[in-house]
Amino acid sequence: MGPPGDEREQILYESILRSAPVGIVLLNQDFRVVFGNPMAEHLTGHDVEQLRGSRFFDILLPEHKVAPYLETLNQAMTIAFEMDLQLERPSSETVDLHVTSSSFQAGEQNYILLVLQNITERKASEQVMEDSFDKFMQMTIHLDEALKENRRQASVLSEYKGKMDRELELAQRVLTAIIPDRFPTNEFIESAGICLPCNELGGDYLDMFELDSHRFGILVADVSGHGVASALITTMLKVYFGRHVREISDPAEMMAAMNAETYKIFGGTGFYFTACYSVLDLQRYEIATVLGGHWAPLRYSSRNQDVIALDAIPGTLLGAMAPERTRYETAVTSLDPDDLLLFFTDGIQEARAGLEDLTLYGESRLFHFLKSNHQMEPPAFVRALISDVDRYLQGNPPNDDRSALAVRLKAKSDSAGI
User: Fold this and answer.
1) How far apart are CA 122 and CA 24, in angstroms?
2) Strands 33-36 and 23-27
3) Could you write out the DSSP letters of every residue in 112-174?
4) Contact between 302 and 337 (Cβ < 8 Å)
5) Gap between the Cα atoms of 211 and 298, Å rounded
6) Angle 292-295-298 (CA atoms, 0-180°, nearest 5)?
7) DSSP reduced 3-state for 310
8) pLDDT tens-digit map of 135-172
9) Which of its termini does the chain have fewer beta carbons within 10 Å around, N or C?
């Protein structure tokens, strides 16, 4: 479109003019067409591209009728006009048009805006045209005001973004704080964990806590999605387990209670989480495990010198289904000194090398890594595992949060106290 100005404004103005219910033709100060909308094309019978660059009346009227209209256009730069015009379309059809004008200046250029309407239809639609044109003019005024307001608010938006960045940083600190930076280590066990979100706020959670003198609870959870909502649910899990884990001894009952509680809060919202909860008993030298839509932990067996999954029965994911539709069962695995246990979220074995490469890091690769590196101490082991997954990503950003917790059984306790 002809008039100079902000490119975005031109696009918006042109869009409005194109959809106007009347013919719109824009002339420059040489009376040449710089814009015509589809309705102008329909009324005159001339393609807009034919009109563009031509002197408007030269192409519409016979040469002997042009002079009076050019004089009218000369005056239109200062005085608006209104006239009736009969022209013959290229199809030889005659049409009577009512033409009104207005003028304006943009930069150093003067322009004339012509509004065309079929006189035959005018009486029937005069009120509609008047209302539409008024709305059109109001819309352009409001649009201009809105664009100015948007520019004015740019600094406000920048300020707001700064505030959001600060709040996001605070949320990151809170989420980092709820993941233990140290895991239980004594003469009988050594443990270490790592939790790495794939973006600012993740949805993975790891924890290991002392239940009594010889039992430890181990929780791994993976909340659907990422962002503030997932981080909030992750924080809620820590609070809930911290409050109830010592009251409910059976892992399956604990998982069922957790599902009932979370279903009340976000059932039907589309959010859910998977979890694995285990109780490690160093007196009985066994581990009781319940799954809620989660992968079973792995065990390097010092007796068999091989990697096997802990005994675990698949259970329903949490927070998405009413309690009566869920099932959780506890399974128990006997352990041996020098066993290495690995708890993890699906960001490990489901890591992909890129968006187009759907090949996963995979269960077999994870089994091989555990078997090949079982002799490593837990802190070194989890760091090496994350490094191995990162190498598999080949420099691509991770597609999910990555979390791992390793527990080494160092010696067997012969008494109730440890």
Assistant:
1) 15
2) antiparallel
3) EEEEEEEHHHHHHHHHHHHHHHHHHHHHHHHHHHHHHHHHHHHHHHHHHHHHHHHHHHHHHHH
4) yes
5) 22
6) 130
7) coil
8) 666 776 777 777 777 777 766 666 666 665 565 555 55
9) N
Q: Smallest Cα–Cα separation from 406: which of 337, 333, 342? A: 342
- Across 80-111, b (16+ Cβ under 10 Å) vs e yields ebeeebebeeeeeeebebbbebebeeeeeebb
pLDDT of residue 4: 45
| DSSP three-state, residue 192 | strand
pLDDT of residue 56: 80
Q: Is 394 left (phi over 0), alpha (psi -120 to 50) or beta?
A: left
| Phi, psi of 386, deg, nearest 5 | -60, -40
352: tokens are 């992909």
Low-confidence ranges of the chain (pLDDT < 50): 1-5, 415-418
Helix (H) or strand (E) holding 247: none
* Cα 282 from Cα 239, distance rounded (Å): 26
Asked whether 36 and 26 are in contact (CB, 8 A), the reply is: yes
How far is 346 from 53, CA to CA, in rounded Å? 64
Kindly state the helix (H) or strand (E) to which residue 253 belongs, with its residue range.
helix 251-266
